[in-house]
Each structure stands twice: as C-alpha cells, then as structure tokens.
Design goal:
Chain lengths: 327, 324
C-alpha cells in the first residue's frame, strides 16, 4: 500500500483500463491537451494518443450521445463531464438513451459506457455549478451510480464501472480530488464491486450513513462524538444504485439510531429513500426517528457564509446525532 | 453483392412489401390490435429502399420513430415487425419497444428512436466506432425535417465533421414535422443548407425516384468508404398518411396529396421497368401478391405469438438481468 491522492487514484484507474482493453477510450472537454480541467487525465494523451484520448467541443448533448452510439456497437467509452452540473445539458442522452436501450431493444443493445466527473457542491460556484445529481439519476432504472469518497474507492469503483456492461455514473467528489489515502500498488488489480457499502468506522450508539463529500464530515463528527462518549458507526454507501441496504440494516440493528448525511437536497433526496427502506424493513429496531442532514431546499447562494448554511455541516450533523441519541 | 447489381425488380418487391405491410398495420391499428403511437412511411419508400440498394448489408442504419420500413429493408422479417407492433415476444424488440423502437442487431438496424433528433449523436458514435476500428462500414443516419432544428442534430453534425466520421445524414423531408410545415419551422429556404454550416458536402435528391436516390447514395457511400467523411442528403419526399394514425392531416390540401400520389415511387419504378422490358404486368401482379401475402401472414403470426412473460419484467433493465 502507498499513499496517493484521489486524483492520482482516478488517473491510475483510467490508465490501467486503457492499457488493458483497446476498446476503452476517454472523451470530454479538455481531457487531452489540457490534461483535464481537474487534471484527472494528466499524461493520458501522451501515453495513449489522440485516437483514444479525445478532446470534444463544449457540446455535452452531442458527445454524450456519441459515446452511447459507440457503446451500442461494442466500444467502452469513458465520457468525462467537466462537472455533472453540465451533464444536465445532456440529460436526455443520459436518462433516455443510455439506460433505456437494453429494454427497448428487447435485450439486444447494452450500453457499456462510463460517465464520470465531479459532482456535488464545491466551493462558492453558485447555483448552476453546484448540483448534486445523484438523486436525479437514481430515479431512472437502468443506471448504476457510485460515489467514491476515498482514493482507494475512487480507483476500485472506476475500474469496475469501466468493465461493467451497463451504463455507470461515477460521481466524483470535487472537494476530495487532492485528499490522500492508502491504495494498493498499481500491479494489483483493484476492483471494488458496485453496490457494496463499507463500514468506515465501527461504533455502537448511532449509525451515520454518508457518501462522497459527506464521508470526511461524518468521520470527523465521529471523532468529536467519541470525546462525548457517543460511539458512531460510519457507513459509507459508496454506491447509490445498487444500494447496499443489507449493510445499512446490519448497522441499524446494532445501533438502533440513524442519521443520514447527504450532499443532495431534502426533497426526494437519497436519504428519503433510505429512510423509507429502514422503517419499512426494520421498524422495530429503531429507538428514535431517522433524521436526515442534507442541503437546505434553496438554489445555492454564492456568498460563502450562506453557502455553508445550505450545506450539511458539522453543527447540523452533531445536533442531529444528539437528537437521535436523546443526549 | 455490389449495390448496382442488386436487381431492380427485387427492389420494387421490397417497396411493395413496405407498402403492403403498413397498409395491414394501419388496418390492425384501427382494430385496436396495435397500441401506442404508429407512424406510417407510406409514400416515402423510394428513400429507404434506394439507401438499401446503395449500401452493404453490414452498413449501419439508424433512424427516428417512423422506422418500420428501415427494419424491413435491413432484413428484419415482416413477422417480427408485425409481432413487435402487437407487443408480442416474437417481435424484433421482444414486444418491449413498440412501433417507434424497432431494433435488429443481427441485421445492423440500430433503431427506431423516438425523441426527435436525439439519435443523430448516436449515429455519429456508431460511425466513430467504425473509424476507431478501421472498418470501412458506413453509417446511414435517417431523420425527418423536424429534427433539423434540434440542438442534438447540430451538435452531431459538428462532431461528425470535426472528427471526419464515415456517416451519411439523410433528411427525409416530407414537408411536415407533425403538423408544422418546413416553412413555419425552419429559417432556411432549403434544408440542405444546414449542412453547409458545418462544411459537410450536401445534395438534394428526388425522394420519390428510386433510381435517383440509389445512384446518388451509391456515389456518396462509395466516396465515404474510400476516405471517411460525413455527407448530407436531403431527400424530398411525401407521406400520404398523417403524422401518426391519430392525425387526419387537415393541415394540407387534397390537391397536394393527389399531386404526390401521381408521383408515387412504386408506380414510377414499375413504369420504368415495364417500359424497358424488364417487368411484365404478370410479374408485377405476382410480386404484389407475394407482398400482400407476406403482410397478411405477418398478422397471423403476430396474433398467434405469445405475450412477453411477466416473469421477465426485470430481465432487460441490466445486462445481468438482476433486479437492483
């Protein structure tokens, strides 16, 4: 194991899969000559050439559809959105063409495509550039969605996504690109299955369910809570769809108290679905109502102080945990 | 078989099959055997049959929702097409796609796409794959005049030109996007000028004339095969029926319809072949009878086929068939 950044981990995943399979190629805005808007594709043009690392015009609808067409005839495109906020320009392609093709064709045309890029609010980018799209895409059958929070998960999930025969969205965490973590050496094939949550920290008093940018928040909350004699278990979903409900249920059966901290919005957010499943399946295990900490239901303000108030933060998370623990 | 060698009588038979198949489909729709939307191609047959005559079986076809004819010319059986309209498991999309979503991987029919313009980038992606793999296959991407004002269409043309992809864009201009005439939808005097904005070579053909369509397309497809590049054809044609089965087409006059009916692509090719001594009346009657019989038989086949089983509901959401 060695320590690398989340960005390097993604870069390694791309390079290894490009090396392994000649049908894999990467396309998107600024991925080649500019080395990626966030430098995730650094060095790939030089190594794999312009036939496989392809700069596109600012034309999300067009190049997302082009990727889907190439996937229909058997290539395995990786389409980078500079941010998933821009994927909304290609929404029709991502939700109508990619996931429907297999059903509409009676099983003849699968679409082995990976859409990847940063997702979720970053820092003072304003309302149009701060979308957390996981709850939108999770509503469409036929799409798989993962949300890595650590370099190891980023690498393992992206590699799995590229090899998956279905459309997969890898929603990366913009604020975590420079974060570091331990990852297996490059010569080991690191594949993390989609739909498998991970206990990032064991605990016994409360389960904090989190993903992507809320994982570091939940982990530091757990540290603070420890000082107050509250033992928090941190469940990192890693994938939104398929959802590892068993891992959630196992933890809830152990702690009987749940807080979901999510980076998306409250109305029809990911936490709403999880809350429903918990009360439906293991209602008797609960000692307190499930609480959610999500964004406020407003377009994202630019002002830094207001932005912090909109996002899930330590104060709101701690308050929610204490409420479910009645302490 | 080389395109030019494909027998013209055979191509006439194909046009008759499309015509007779859709006449039967229309009848079955009216008897409520077919659900959803159903858009008929009747009147436009010379375009897609001309394209079939100008291409190889392994060239890719992709089109919009008026797609029955495109599947039939690529080799999907009338039985599988009618069964799809009936929503049966023996349909070309196993009864899950319907009239607007005909697919046939084996015969290189890549759909049947129902969001106007949204499949044009898919066609570009298919052409990209051919170039990526150094194949000399050509993608034929069909769409109606309604698609040319969609953003996806413009983005797709730009990408195809930028990457020099082996694709022939075919605008089947039947003068109406649903009920809106080209004059009321498009700022240009002629549709073909859309291609000029992307430096894509473009031509106009008489879409009611099989030979003209075939010859022009064969020339363009040959040039694309030699050196990959996009090209554009505006095929001027006419649909005799409404936009869909529920459309009485009251936005156009009877005189206009009659004018085009006199120019019917089937009558025209028949007359040409008869004049040249390549087709007798008896032969024509025979191929027409065969087309009618195939259409009728497809109805019987569809009626007798089974519905897709409920247990398979989740089988096609993901490749592994697992419920998530």
């Amino acid at each position: 194991m060695r320590e690398i950044t989340y960005r390097q981990a993604l870069n390694e995943a791309l390079a290894e899969e490009l090396e392994r399979d000649p049908d894999v190629f990467l396309m998107g805005e600024e991925v080649a000559e500019y080395n990626g808007a966030y430098k995730v594709s650094q060095g790939l043009l030089e190594r794999f050439g312009a036939n496989r690392i392809i700069d596109t015009p600012i034309s999300e609808n067009g190049f997302a559809g082009m990727g889907i067409g190439a996937a229909m005839v058997g290539l395995r495109p990786i389409v980078e959105f500079m941010t998933f906020s821009f994927s909304l320009v290609a929404f029709d392609q991502v939700v109508n063409n990619a996931p429907n093709m297999l059903t509409m064709s009676g099983g003849q045309f699968n679409v082995p495509i990976t859409f990847r890029g940063p997702n979720g609010p970053a820092h003072q980018l304003g309302a149009t550039h701060s979308h957390a799209t996981e709850c939108l895409y999770a509503n469409f059958p036929g799409l798989k969605i993962c949300t890595p929070a650590t370099p190891r998960d980023a690498k393992g999930l992206l590699k799995t996504a590229i090899r998956d025969d279905n459309p997969v969205l890898v929603l990366e965490a913009e604020l975590l690109y420079s974060s570091k973590g331990m990852v297996e050496p490059p010569d080991e094939d690191l594949l993390i299955p989609l739909g498998q949550a991970e206990v990032k920290r064991e605990g016994s008093d409360v389960s904090i369910i989190c993903y992507a940018q809320t994982v570091p928040l939940a982990l530091s909350a757990a540290q603070q809570l420890e000082e107050e004699d509250i033992s928090a278990e941190i469940i990192d979903l890693r994938s939104i769809k398929p959802l590892d409900e068993q891992a959630i249920f196992n933890s809830v059966a152990k702690t009987h108290r749940v807080v979901i901290v999510e980076q998306d919005r409250p109305f029809c957010g990911v936490g709403a679905e999880i809350t429903y499943r918990i009360q439906k399946n293991i209602f008797d295990e609960l000692d307190a109502p499930v609480l959610r900490v999500s964004q406020e239901d407003v377009p994202m303000p630019y002002n830094e102080r207001l932005e912090k108030a909109v996002l899930p933060n330590m104060e709101r998370l701690m308050a929610a945990v204490k409420k479910v623990c009645y302490s | 078989m080389q395109p030019a060698e494909r027998d013209e009588v055979e191509m006439l038979s194909l046009m008759l099959l499309l015509r007779r198949f859709e006449e039967r489909a229309s009848q079955q729709y009216q008897s409520q055997k077919i659900g959803g939307f159903c858009h008929l191609y009747i009147g436009q047959e010379a375009v897609v049959v001309g394209a079939a005559a100008a291409t190889r079986p392994d060239d890719y076809f992709i089109t919009a929702y008026r797609d029955h004819a495109h599947a039939l010319v690529k080799g999907t059986s009338a039985n599988a097409c009618m069964a799809e309209l009936f929503g049966k498991e023996t349909g070309c999309s196993k009864g899950l796609g319907g009239s607007m979503h005909f697919f046939d991987r084996k015969n290189h029919m890549y759909g049947g796409h129902a969001i106007v313009g949204a499949h044009v980038p898919l066609g570009v992606g298919m052409a990209f794959a051919s170039k990526y793999r150094r194949e000399d296959r050509v993608t034929l991407c069909f769409f109606g005049d309604g698609a040319i004002n969609q953003g996806a269409f413009h983005e797709a043309l730009n990408l195809a030109a930028l990457y020099k992809l082996p694709i022939l864009f075919i605008c089947e201009n039947n003068l109406f996007a649903m009920g809106t005439s080209v004059k009321r939808s498009t700022s240009l005097k002629q549709i073909v000028d859309r291609a000029e904005g992307y430096d894509i070579p473009a031509d106009i053909v008489d879409g009611m004339n099989f030979r003209e369509v075939r010859d022009k397309m064969a020339e363009i497809v040959g040039s694309i095969r030699k050196e990959p590049h996009p090209a554009f054809i505006e095929a001027r044609t006419y649909r005799y029926r409404g936009h869909s089965m529920s459309d009485p087409a009251s936005y156009r006059t009877k005189d206009e319809l009659e004018k085009y009916r006199l120019d019917d692509p089937i009558i025209r090719l028949r007359a040409q072949l008869t004049r040249e001594g390549k087709l007798t009346n008896e032969q024509f009657d025979k191929i027409d009878r065969e087309a009618k019989e195939a259409a009728l038989a497809s109805v019987k086949f569809a009626e007798e086929s089974a519905e897709p089983p409920l247990e398979k509901l989740y089988d096609y959401t993901f490749v592994n068939g697992a419920k998530q």
